Amino acid sequence: MGDVPSPLWLRTADVDHMRRDGRDEDPGHAWTAERLGALYPGTSCTLLDCGVMSGVTYAGLRDAGLPVDYTGIDVSPRVLDACRTEHPGARWLEMSVTDLAFGEGSFDVVNSRHLLECLPYYETAVREMFRVARTHVIIGFFQVPRAPEALLRRETDEGYIWLNRYDPGPFEELLHRLSREVETADLRHGPRRSRIYLCTKR
Ligand SMILES: C[S@@+](CC[C@H](N)C(=O)[O-])C[C@H]1O[C@@H](n2cnc3c(N)ncnc32)[C@H](O)[C@@H]1O
What we know:
By secondary structure, the protein is α/β, with parallel strands linked by helices. The chain has one domain (7-136, 154-201): Vaccinia Virus protein VP39 (Rossmann fold), CATH 3.40.50.150. Helices cover 32% and strands 31% of the residues. The chain has a 7-stranded mixed beta sheet with strand order 3-2-1-4-5-9-8. The protein is globular and about 45 Å long. S-adenosylmethionine (SAM) binds at residues 12, 18, 23, 50-53, 56-57, 73-76, 79, 96-98, 113-115, 118-119. Keywords: Methyltransferase, Transferase.
């Protein structure tokens, strides 16, 4: 593995770039809002969003008119400060998805979008998300799972970050063990692909 950050990672780590390149227009927001609206018709749900960056998911759900009681967690104080300034209507807490300080079933829905790719591996995070979810777990990937698995650690000015592509076999097996039902959506936005797993907890 080289220690030169890939152009993909340099772009992914840059909040302003993520905004400029239209990731906030990603069709995943509309898909998630439509599915949540169908699952919770005419009522609000509590939602924990893990790994929030610019508050893009909060803004996407709000713009879709979905009445969610939103809590966002992230490990980066800088990210959280920006979210608190830009979106004072939500709760923003410093916490890792691998060690969530909430009891079992604390939130109706637990969401992450483009987060699991940035962890050393996914299993602890997935199990934590399912533990604190009451009914649904939603996991979005920009690095769409595909074999062979590729685990890449990139150095940055602030340390390092992973940018992994996971083998879908064991990943989906884990989701099915923890879920009654797993719905998968493969989406495209220009040249970009993404995948969302909507899991109904067992
Ligand atoms: C690539 S960004 C994705 C942000 C946003 N969800 C999106 O869809 O654009 C990953 C975010 O996860 C955060 N993060 C990294 N490791 C984390 C962890 N262990 N727990 C919670 N957040 C984490 C980073 O600080 C960053 O804000």
